[in-house]
Amino acid sequence: MDKQAENYFSSNLKLLRKRRKRTQDDIAHALGMKRSTYSGYENAIAQPGMEALVQFSGYFGIAIDTLIKVDLARLGERELSQLERGYDVHINGSNLRVLATTVSADNEDNIELVPDKAQAGYRKGFADPEFIQVLPTFRLPFLSRQKKYRTFQISGDSMLPIPDGAWVTGEYVEDWNHIRDRHAYIVLTSDDGIVFKVAENRIREDGCLVLYSLNPLYEPFEVPVKDIREVWRFVHYISSEMPAGNVPRDEIGQAVAELRRDLSLIRSRILKLEL
């Protein structure tokens, strides 16, 4: 490793560690090495071997080439956050992704619609401007013009009372560290495609999101950061299905009266059997 690469590596280690709010002891323990060994790497006193480089690459989710050849301190916050989320040119073979979007004739962002039948294509074409261009679009005047929105059609009953087939609109989340616990998000994953869930943010601690359904019949599950492609914060939904109303009081009273009559009949039958 030449002197420049050694300097980049040591400064990158320190930068990435501080962004994760970890101590040298924390990372040394996680990687099974002595703190003095880790400190030597971070202070450019010692050069890491290939085994150590592989460990650091796996821990931070950043390619070895990037760790030793790129001065991460010169990158902007958006580029750094994308690197930390797995969008590394040396890992996935493409440039850091910029959100593909469409604009109206007056140069305002559209809201693209992703119907259920287009979701398989969206899973592969979400970063392809040509694919995004063919999606239907609309505008909602009450939403901020300073933010980016997209609407997805959901399927299934995992998020009841939001019904199957509802159109769910989300606001684009650029920095995933800002994902808030117990808030709903539309998440594009590499394995499961588009999922609409309530999130628990475990990115800093465990490098993942834990996703929950509103329907208790569905178990929560973890999604590693490296498998996440996009996140959209839930804003509102549109559905043609009429939500179920509350049961009127007279119906409740009638039901209680019927239960009491049934209970009286059961008691009278028990008494007859005892006699």
Largest sheet data: 9 strands, mixed
What sort of overall outline do the alpha carbons produce when their principal axes are compared? flat
**SSE order, one letter for each helix or strand:** HHHHHHHEHHEEEEEHEEEH
| Class by alpha and beta content | alpha+beta
Number of domains: 2
Distance between the termini: 97 Å
Count of strand segments:
9
CATH superfamily of the largest domain: Umud Fragment, subunit A
Proportion in helices: 25-40%
Q: Please state how the strands of the largest beta sheet are arranged side by side.
A: 2-1-3-4-9-5-6-7-8
> Hey, roughly how much beta strand do the residues contain?
15-25%
In CATH, the architecture of the largest domain is Ribbon
Explain the overall architecture:
- This protein is of the alpha+beta class.
- It folds into two domains: 3-92, 434 Repressor (Amino-terminal Domain) (Orthogonal Bundle), CATH 1.10.260.40; 111-238, Umud Fragment, subunit A.
- Helix content is 38%, strand content 20%.
- It has helices spanning 3-19, 24-31, 35-42, 50-60, 64-69, 77-84, 89-92, 119-125, 129-133, 203-206, 249-274; strands at 111-114, 137-138, 149-153, 167-172, 183-189, 193-202, 208-212, 221-224, 228-238.
- It has a nine-stranded mixed beta sheet with strand order 2-1-3-4-9-5-6-7-8.
- Helix 2 (24-31) crosses helix 3.
- The chain is flat, with a radius of gyration of 27 Å.
- The protein starts with a helix and ends with a helix.
- The model is unreliable at 91-97 (pLDDT under 50).
